[in-house]
Every structure is written in C-alpha cells, then in structure tokens.
C-alpha cells in the first residue's frame, strides 16, 4: 500500500508551494535581494545612455534606471492628488466641509456624492502608491528612496482618512451640526495635519 496523499487538491498543492517559497525567501532574503541588485546593476550598466538633442541637453529626460522610474512616478503624486481633489488637499477638504455645513439639504447630498467619488479615486490611488512602494523596495531595498516613497504613501493614506472622516460625519443623522461641532473642536485630520 502506498503512502497517503499529501495534497488532495491542486489548490492545497499550490498553497504548500507558496508557503515553502515564502519560507525560503524569508530565510535567504538578504542574499536573494543582493543577487537581484547585482544582476540589475550589471544589466543597467550595459544600456545605452539616453539620446541628446542637438543643443546637448536631454529632451526626453528618461530615468537612469528602474528605481528612478518608480521614484519619478511617486514624486508626481502630489500633482495627482491635487488633480483628483481639484485643489490642494487641505483647501479642498475645507471647502467641502464649509459647503456641507452651510448648505441646503440638496448641497449636503451633493457634497456626500463628491466625498464618495473622492474615496473611490483615493482608494485606487492608494493601490498605485502601494505598487510604487513595492517596486522601489524590491529594486533598491530599504534606503532613503524607499522611505521617501513610503512618506508619500502615508500622505495619500492620511488624506483618504480625512475624506473618510468627513464622509462619516456627513452620514450622521445630526448632519450639519455634527460636522460644525467637529470642525469647531478641530477634530478633522485636515485641520491639524501638514499636508503638501
């Protein structure tokens, strides 16, 4: 008689393989990442430099390597946030709060709809920022570049929390008075944070 089956389904087998791979990576993380960095740097040094225009300056301004590529994308996040919110984050949330507090029920409903839309956009932006963070960590390790991207990620997260707080207060049955009281007490994160 043969041995009992270790895995009864393909899913169990795949899960066991994932766990074994994860365990191996955790044990040899530093050497694996160092090998990846060495291989990357040896391959990136073989690449051609970006083409220059006739004036001698680089018109395309392509990033030097993959880390620079992801950092460049992360540095554009404040502009993306401003584009989503329509103004700098603090100003945009102040305006939404003011509109909700001083408006009619129709304006309040419109403000709630705007907040829901912002929450959806910020949620997708957080996923993008997480992707940037993961790429920089994988390519460069835990260094200044990674901390810079992480700081941007925290800003996006805190802005989403600020929008979420405001939205939750607008859902309160007391509505406008609850928002007004919270605003007076400087409860909202956008009143105390130092966002860009």
TrEMBL record:
It comes from the Eukaryota. Residues 1-64 are annotated as: Disordered. Residues 8-18, 35-50 have a biased composition (Basic and acidic residues). This is Uncharacterized protein. It comes from Coprinopsis marcescibilis. The lineage of its organism: Eukaryota, Fungi, Dikarya, Basidiomycota, Agaricomycotina.
């Amino acid at each position: 008689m043969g041995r009992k089956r270790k895995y009864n389904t393909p899913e169990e087998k795949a899960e066991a393989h994932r766990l074994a791979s994860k365990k191996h990576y955790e044990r040899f993380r530093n050497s694996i990442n160092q090998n990846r960095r060495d291989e990357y740097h040896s391959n990136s040094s073989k690449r051609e430099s970006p083409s220059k225009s006739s004036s001698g300056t680089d018109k395309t301004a392509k990033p030097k390597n993959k880390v620079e590529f992801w950092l460049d994308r992360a540095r554009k996040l404040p502009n993306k946030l401003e584009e989503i919110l329509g103004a700098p984050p603090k100003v945009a949330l102040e305006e939404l709060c003011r509109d909700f507090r001083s408006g009619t029920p129709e304006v309040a409903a419109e403000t709630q709809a705007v907040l829901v839309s912002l929450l959806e956009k910020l949620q997708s932006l957080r996923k993008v920022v997480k992707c940037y963070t993961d790429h920089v960590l994988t390519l460069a390790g835990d260094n200044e570049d990674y901390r810079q991207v992480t700081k941007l990620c925290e800003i996006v997260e805190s802005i989403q929390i600020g929008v979420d707080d405001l939205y939750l207060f607008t859902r309160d049955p007391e509505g406008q008075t609850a928002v007004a009281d919270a605003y007076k007490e400087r409860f909202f994160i956008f009143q105390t944070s130092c966002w860009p």
